[in-house]
Design a protein that fits this description.
Low-confidence stretches: 158-183
Oligomer: single chain
Helix content: over 70%
Length: about 260
């Protein structure tokens, strides 16, 4: 099968208009879309249908096939996964399915996180967030549950850098050497990578573990819950708080690099 797949790729590279080769590649990598859809779906409300995510992701797969450059010496799967996920998230953003009340509560949490990070010089606990917003701890956890649907989008947003060719550079890309040809793009990706690493390292142990297991090891929230000895719902809350902290911290770190680039 690997040799047959290599032959199909060779045909496609020689003639991108070869529809048979193109369709065979799409069929071969379709399970990758289902895999990504399952991971994305785990962090979304029940109202989001996995079949819809798969259809959104197929567009990303087709784009990845058309834009894949074997000269970069990167596995196709590594190149394609961020684009498949990004295609799903782009469609969800376009649908604007997150209620305004959830967005408002998410903004309040972010503002409280920003204020407390500045004051405490560390990430605040859930108890400290509750005190800052003058609400019960259970309310903070309810808000984290409600904002979980946005957190996966947020993490993609804050780790995306620009590209003159319109390429999507996301979380996984920043941690891999994709051989960027544009010096400015390479510098920006490196700054993002450093900010991401520093931000992740600043998290408390349990939050850092959730982020690493979910985004870099590919574990589901349920599996992470088994490892940590907590419920899947609790992992979702920890994940949401960790992403919120990363979002605030990275925005601050990347803002500090702007003058240097100019």
């Amino acid at each position: 099968m690997p040799e047959e797949l290599a032959d199909i790729w060779e045909r496609f590279f020689k003639n991108p208009r070869d529809q048979d080769a193109r369709e065979r590649l799409i069929l071969n990598y379709a399970p990758l879309v289902k895999f990504v859809a399952g991971r994305v779906r785990a962090a979304l409300p029940p109202s989001v249908d996995q079949a819809d995510l798969v259809s959104y992701g197929m567009l990303g797969l087709i784009e990845a096939i058309e834009r894949f450059d074997r000269k970069r010496e990167v596995k196709f799967e590594t190149f394609a996964i961020p684009r498949i996920r990004g295609s799903m998230l782009d469609e969800l953003r376009a649908l604007d399915w997150v209620p305004r009340s959830v967005r408002a509560k998410g903004r309040e949490l972010a503002q409280a996180m920003t204020k407390l990070q500045s004051t405490l010089r560390r990430d605040p606990t859930e108890e400290e967030l509750a005190a800052e917003l003058n609400v019960a701890l259970d309310e903070i956890r309810d808000r984290l549950d409600a904002s979980a649907a946005m957190s996966i989008v947020a993490l993609e947003d804050i780790t995306t850098v620009g590209s003159e060719e319109g390429d999507r550079v996301s979380l996984l890309d920043t941690l891999a050497d994709l051989g960027a040809e544009q010096p400015g793009e390479a510098i920006e990706a490196e700054e993002t990578r450093r900010a991401l690493i520093e931000s992740i390292e600043s998290l408390v142990d349990r939050e850092r573990k959730v982020i690493v297991l979910y985004y870099f090891e590919g574990f589901t929230l349920a599996r992470i819950g088994d490892i940590l000895g907590v419920t899947e719902s609790r992992v979702s809350q920890i994940h949401s708080k960790a992403v919120l902290a990363l979002r605030v911290r990275m925005a601050e770190l990347l803002a500090d690099t702007q003058p240097a680039r100019r």
